[in-house]
Design a protein that fits this description.
Layout lengths: L2 H14 L6 H27 L7 H18 L4 H5 L2 H20 L17 H7 L8 H30 L7 H5 L3 E5 L3 H14 L3 E4 L5 E5 L5 H23 L1 E8 L3 E3 L5 E17 L2 E18 L2 E8 L5 E5 L10 E13 L2 E10 L3 H20 L3 E7 L5 E7 L3 H19 L3 E3 L2
Antiparallel strand pairs: 1-13, 1-14, 2-3, 3-12, 4-11, 5-6, 6-7, 7-8, 9-10, 10-11, 12-13
Helix pairs in contact: 2-3, 3-7, 5-7, 7-10, 9-12, 10-11
Length: about 425
């Protein structure tokens, strides 16, 4: 073969392996990136010019992530490995923690207009970046999407192995497997008698005995602690889904209603009527003299309507809100929905007393609470019920091989292991040979 042909073949191979992709793969990813980018830009322009219509932030956030992943695929990156990496989960959790601090430090929503931040030289920059509306911003939803994808893939990837180790543990093992455990010992000449003594001892220590078909025995404690990691990952997934539901479908509005007035509740199809506003006063005493009075309780006789039908009427106070159940076909499948009317404050106007209500809806709260419950349950279960396993097998020369391992509480497990081997040594009247 001539040098020219060799160079041409080498150049052809190089072009076909650009970015680790073949030419057909590059064409596919290029078309995918261009298509997704065009759809993303078109829908973004439409949404931001018509924000009074359907809320498309959750769709746009998904498109943003799809474009990023497609670009990574075009560059030859392993997208699947990226989505299942622990680094991505830790990075996203760190970013969310930082954004939560920012969202707590900076005023959010309409409250920024009443704060001194509107006079800050960087106000326009912060507003453009969405820092005054962090939890409902498009890029915050994109971060939650990434975290949800990561946790979902991790659960899908780890569940089969965890399920197999939990419900179908490895009982039938070879001699080499037992000896190679972190803690291992050999009781010479113990044989089947030593096996029976070991099983009795482990039963007294509340280990569950699982005999195998080849003569080996496995004893274990905390068999379900392996599911704690699944519960821990699932908890973050539920919290992320709850946060996305709250960001997309939730709202928090201030509603002002005079006595006898009916107003629309922004963000819903509800109307609210203020029939009466009451204030209770308490005398202020100083040095035994009445120096005036101060309001101690205020309430609003409120009725809520939907499509002309009365839903509920109640006298609400600061600590006694009115909760209206509503239904939305998308999030109701995951979480119950309620619109809450809280008595926030009041003020005197030229036309009478105005009752100030705080109206909010948090559709993802139940999932967030469930996620935190699973998180705490998984942490407590893994800490207090570590998975401990001990294998017993009689060797070809009649010796009893003992090996064990645990995922946590190694000191406590070592005590159990030493107690087992000590009792075997005493009852068999022989010395043991320790490997661990």
């Amino acid at each position: 073969m001539s040098a020219g042909k060799a160079a041409a073949i080498k150049g052809s191979k190089t072009s076909e392996s650009l970015s680790g992709r073949s030419v057909p793969d590059l064409i596919f990813y290029l078309i995918l990136v261009v298509t997704l980018a065009l759809v993303d830009v078109t829908l973004s322009i439409y949404y931001y010019r018509n924000q009074s219509g359907f809320d498309m932030r959750w769709i746009l956030a998904g498109l943003d992530i799809s474009v990023i992943l497609s670009v990574m695929g075009l560059a030859g990156k392993r997208v699947g490995h990226f989505l299942t990496s622990m680094k991505l989960a830790l990075t996203m959790l760190f970013v969310i923690a930082i954004l939560s601090i920012i969202g707590t430090w900076l005023p959010q929503g309409e409250t920024v207009l009443e704060s001194g931040w509107v006079k800050n030289p960087l106000y326009d920059v912060y507003r453009t970046l969405g820092l005054f509306n962090v939890y409902q911003s498009r890029w915050f939803l994109a971060i939650l999407y990434l975290l949800a994808f990561n946790l979902g893939f991790c659960i899908f990837k780890r569940f089969p192995t965890t399920y197999r180790h939990t419900l179908k543990p490895r009982v039938d093992v070879k001699e080499k497997f037992v000896i190679n455990q972190p803690l291992a010992a050999e009781i010479a000449g113990a044989g089947e008698k030593g096996m029976a003594i070991a099983r009795e001892t482990l039963s007294g220590m509340r280990y569950r005995i699982r005999p195998g078909q080849t003569g080996s025995v496995m004893a274990e404690k905390g068999r379900y602690s392996g599911l704690a990691s699944i519960a821990f990952h699932l908890s973050f997934l539920l919290i992320g889904i709850g946060a996305m539901l709250g960001a997309v479908f939730g709202f928090d509005e201030t509603v002002e209603i005079r006595e006898g007035q009916t107003v629309d509740v922004r963000g819903t199809n509800l109307k609210a009527t203020n029939y009466d506003f009451q204030i209770k006063y308490t005398d202020v005493m100083e040095e035994g003299r009445n120096t005036g009075s101060m309001p101690t309780e205020y309430s609003t006789d409120l009725e809520v309507f939907a499509d002309g039908q009365s839903l509920e009427r109640k006298v609400i106070t600061v600590n006694g809100p009115l909760r209206i159940s509503t239904y939305n076909p998308v999030p109701t499948l995951l979480a119950s929905l309620k619109v809450n009317f809280h008595q926030a404050s009041y003020y005197q106007s030229d036309r009478g007393v105005v009752s100030v209500l705080q109206v909010n809806q948090g559709p993802g709260k139940s999932l967030i609470y469930l996620g935190f419950f699973l998180m705490m349950g998984g942490i407590c279960f893994s800490l207090y019920f570590p998975h401990r396993r001990i294998w017993l097998k009689v060797g070809d020369s009649g010796e009893l091989l003992v090996g064990g391992r645990t995922n946590r509480a190694k000191v406590t497990f070592q005590r159990d292991f030493e107690r087992l081997t000590s009792e075997l040594r005493v009852k068999m009247g022989q010395e043991d040979k320790a490997y661990g």
